[in-house]
Task: structure prediction
Amino acid sequence: MATALKTSSWLRPSLDWLLIFVPIAFALRYVVAGRHGTALFIVSALAIIPIAGWMGKATEQLAHRMGEGIGGLLNASFGNAAELIIALMALRAGHIEVVKASITGSIIGNLLLVLGVSVFAGGLRYKKQTFNKTAARASCTALILAAVALVIPTIFHRTAAATPGGWTPAAEQTLSLAIAVVLVGTYAAMLCFSLVTHKQLFVRDDADIASEGDASNDAHAEPWSVKKALMILLGATIAVAWVSEFLVGAVEEARQSLGVTEVFVGVIIVAIVGNAAEHSTAITMALKNKMDLAIGIAVGSSLQIALFVAPVLVFASYLFPHQLNLEFSIPEVVAVVVAAFVTDQIAGDGESNWFEGVQLLALYIILGLLFYYLPSAH
Amino acid sequence: MATALKTSSWLRPSLDWLLIFVPIAFALRYVVAGRHGTALFIVSALAIIPIAGWMGKATEQLAHRMGEGIGGLLNASFGNAAELIIALMALRAGHIEVVKASITGSIIGNLLLVLGVSVFAGGLRYKKQTFNKTAARASCTALILAAVALVIPTIFHRTAAATPGGWTPAAEQTLSLAIAVVLVGTYAAMLCFSLVTHKQLFVRDDADIASEGDASNDAHAEPWSVKKALMILLGATIAVAWVSEFLVGAVEEARQSLGVTEVFVGVIIVAIVGNAAEHSTAITMALKNKMDLAIGIAVGSSLQIALFVAPVLVFASYLFPHQLNLEFSIPEVVAVVVAAFVTDQIAGDGESNWFEGVQLLALYIILGLLFYYLPSAH
Amino acid sequence: MATALKTSSWLRPSLDWLLIFVPIAFALRYVVAGRHGTALFIVSALAIIPIAGWMGKATEQLAHRMGEGIGGLLNASFGNAAELIIALMALRAGHIEVVKASITGSIIGNLLLVLGVSVFAGGLRYKKQTFNKTAARASCTALILAAVALVIPTIFHRTAAATPGGWTPAAEQTLSLAIAVVLVGTYAAMLCFSLVTHKQLFVRDDADIASEGDASNDAHAEPWSVKKALMILLGATIAVAWVSEFLVGAVEEARQSLGVTEVFVGVIIVAIVGNAAEHSTAITMALKNKMDLAIGIAVGSSLQIALFVAPVLVFASYLFPHQLNLEFSIPEVVAVVVAAFVTDQIAGDGESNWFEGVQLLALYIILGLLFYYLPSAH
Result:
C-alpha cells in the first residue's frame, strides 16, 4: 500500500504544477499579444489540464455531498465538462472539423491510450488483474452501440450522395438530430440502470477514492463544503472556458506551423489535453490494482462522450451559425468502431495483463499514424 | 404464474381479433375495387398477421405429432412460411428491391425488435434473466457467418464494378447462386447439429409450449388431429398467398401515398407484418422467464431467414422473369452485420436485463431512421 | 490412443511421399525446359510441401536442443520460413499482387481451412473438445489487432485518394513502413509475453509432440544432433528457395492456362502450398483431442504471418526494385477481418464441436468463391 500511495503522490501533484501555465497563457494573450499563436496554443493546452483536474475534483466533492443518486447524475453530467467547453468554443468559432475530430479523439483516447497505459502499468506490477466482468461487458455493449450509432450518418451520407438528386443536407441534419435524441435517451436509460435499478453492479468504492484523495492532496483531506465546491467548480469552469478560447483562437496558426491537419489536432492533441485528468486517475487506480475503477473511468468517459457530449453538441450547435451533424469521415468511423471492439475483446473477460495494454497502445499508435499522414480534406 | 398466464391470454387472442381484416381485405379488393390502394395495403398487412399465426400453430401441432426429428425439420422449414410466401408474391410481381429489403428487415426485425421487446419486457419483471450460453453462442456464431456471407456479393459488386470491364451480371448471379448453395448446406448441417448430434443443447420444453397453448387458446387444449392440422395449414397457406397478392399489388400506391421508399416498406413494414406471430410468442415466453425459448425464437427465426429463406428465394427466382441475387445495398449490409454482432454481444453471456433490451431497441430505431431518410435508389 | 497413433502415421508420412516431385520439378525445369509452365507450377507446388515439412522438423529439433526461451524464439521466427521464402522470390520477380495475396491467403487459410478441418475432424471423433480459453482469447485478440492494423493502409489509400491532390505514394509507403515497425514491436512483446512473463499460459506439451514424432517418423525417434538439424535446415531452405523460383517463374503461364487471377493464385493456391505442413500437424493434434495444440498451430501461424512475415517482407522489399506496402484490396481486407472475428467467436469460449468446423469451412468456401469470381485488377 505504501508504494501505491507514493506512486499516486508522485503522479497527481504533477498536474497541479501545470497551473503555472495559466498566468503564462493570459500573459501571452493579453500582454505580449499577436503573433505567438503556436506558443499560445501549447501554453493554453498545458494550462487547461490542471484546471480541468480541479473541475473534476469539485464535481467529485459535490457528488459526494449530494448522496448516491444525484451525485452519480452530477458526475455523469459534468465528468467531461472540460471537453464539452472546449468543443463549444471551437463550435462557436466555426471549427466544425476540430469539434468532430475531438469527439472521435476523446473516445479512442480514453479507450486506447488511457486504458492502454493503465492496463500496461498495472500489468507491470501485477501478473494478472481481475475486475467485474458483468459491469465491464455492460459498458462495452453500450460502447459498441454508440460506435454503431455514430457510423449511421456516415453510411447515410455515402449512400445518399451516390444517389442522383437524393442527398439533401437538410435530411442529413434531421437524421443526425434524431440519432442524437436516441443517444441521449439511451444515456438516460443507462444512468437509470447504473444508478437505480442495477447499481450494485457498479459499486464505486468510496473509501478507495477518499483514501486516494487523502494521499494525493493532503491539504484537502477533509471533505469540502458545498459552497467551496460550488465556488471552485464555477471558477474552474470560467477559467477553462476562457483559456479554451485562447486555444481555439490559436488553433489555425499552430496547426500550420506544426504542419498537421485540423483532424490530427482534434483527434490527438485536443483529446489528450481534455482527458489528462482521467488519464492520471485511471493509471493511479490501475497501479493500486483497482482495475474496476480504472476501466470504469476509461470506458465510462468514452461512453459519456458518445452518448451525452456528442448529442449535446449537436443540440447546442443550433445556437451558432454552423450546425453540427454526426457525419464523420471514414477513418474516424473506423477508428471508433475498432477501438470499441478491441476494448470489448480485452475487457470482456474480466482479466487483464501487460500485453493487453501493449496491444491497446499499439492500436492507438497505428491510428495516430493514420491521422498524422492523412491529408487535410480542404 | 397466474400473472404470466393472464398476460399471455391478453396478448395472444389479440392476434385472432385481427382476423376481422381478412373479409375486409377481400371486400376492398373485389367489391370496392380499384382506387383504394393504401387502404388495401394496410388492411391486407393486418389480415396476414393472424393467418400467419394460424400457419404457425398448425405447423407446431403437426411437428408435435411427427415426433422430435421430423417435427423439428418441419418447424425449421415452415417456421417462416408466411415471409416466404409474401416474398415469392413480390418476386413474381418484380419487386426485387422489396424482396431483398424484406430479407434484411426480417433479420434485423427479429434480432433487434422482437428480441429487444422480449428482453425489455422480461427485464421489467425479472431483475436478471438467464439462459443457456452455449446454445445462444452457437446460434449467434451461425448468425455472424450468415451475415458475413450476405456481405460477400456486395463486396464483389463494389470491387468488380470499379474494375474496368471486369463486372458482369452473369458472374455476380453465379456467385450469389454458389453462396446460396453453401448457405443451404450450412443450414442442413445446423439442423443435423441441433436435431441429431447435439440436440440436448437445444431442449425445447414441450411442456411449457403446451401449457402456454392451453392458457392462450382454451378451445384448442387437446392436440389437433393430423388431418385437422393439415387442413388448417393448407387453408392458412392459401389465404396468406391470396392476401399477400393484394398486399404486393398495392405496394406501389401505398408507398407513394405514405411517402416512403420501397426499401423502407420491405425493411420495416413487411418485416413487422411477417414476424408478428414470432413477436407475440417471444414476448410471452420472456414474461414467463423462459428466455431460452424467447431467444431461440428470435435468433432462430433470423437464422432461418438468412440460411434457408434467402437461398430458397434465389433458387425460386429462376422460375420468374427477374432473377434474385444476394447483392444488398451498403446500408442493408451494415444493418445485418451490426444486428448480428450486437445480438451476439448481448446474448453471448447467458444473461439479460432490461437495459440490454433498450439497447437493442435503440439500435432498431436508429436503423429505422436511416432507412426512413435514405432516398430511393431509383 | 492406438487409433490416434495409427491416424497420425497414416497422415504424416503422406507428405514425404511428395518428395518424389522434387526431382520431377528439377527435371521439368532444366531437362525438358521451356514451355511446360503449368506443369512446372503444379509440380513445384507439390514439391515444396514436403521440403517445408522438413524445414519445420529441423526447426523443431533445433528448438528442442536450445531450451525453452531460445527454442521458442527459433520456432516463432522460422515457423513460417517456407512462406517467407516463396514470398521473397515472388517479390524479387515483381509479383507484388501475388505476395500481398499470399499474406492474406496464409492468414485466412490457417484460420478457416486448417482450423476448420481440424475442428471438424476432431469433432467427428469427440462430441465436445475443450481447450484453454485464456490462451485462445489472448491469441485471438492479437489476431484482431493485426487484422485491424492491415486495414489501416487501405483506409488511408481510399480516403487520401478521394482528397484532391492529397494522396502521394511516398506518404502511403511511409505509413506502411511505420505500421510494419509497430507490428514487429507488438510481435516482440507477444514473444516476451508467451515465452517469458506468462509462459505457463502457453504450455507446449513436449511429451505429446515427441510421442507424435515417434509415431510418424519411426526412423527419427531419437533427437537429432544440432549439426544434423542445422544441415537439414540449411539444405531444406536452399531447396525451398530453389523450387520457389520455379514456382514463381511459372506463375504467369499457369495463371493464364488455369484461367484464374493473380490474387486467386496467391490467396488460395500459394497459401495452401505454404501451409500444408501446419495443416497436417493441426489435424493430427485435433484427432488426438489435443485442441490446445491444434488451435495454437493454426492461430499462431496466422499471427506470425501478420505480425512477423508481413513486416519483414515490407522491410526486405527495399532491397528489390518494387517496394511492398500494406495496402490490400477491399476483398482481402474484409476476408482477413472476417476470418479473425469468426475465429475469435468460435475459439473464444474454450469449446469446439464439428458444426463449428463446418462453419469455418463454409466461410472459407465463400471467400474462395469471391476470389475466384473477382476480376483481375489489371
Summary: The beta strands of chain C are 129-130, 351-352. The mean pLDDT of chain C is 83. The first helix of chain C runs from residue 2 to 17. The first strand of chain C starts at residue 129 and ends at 130.
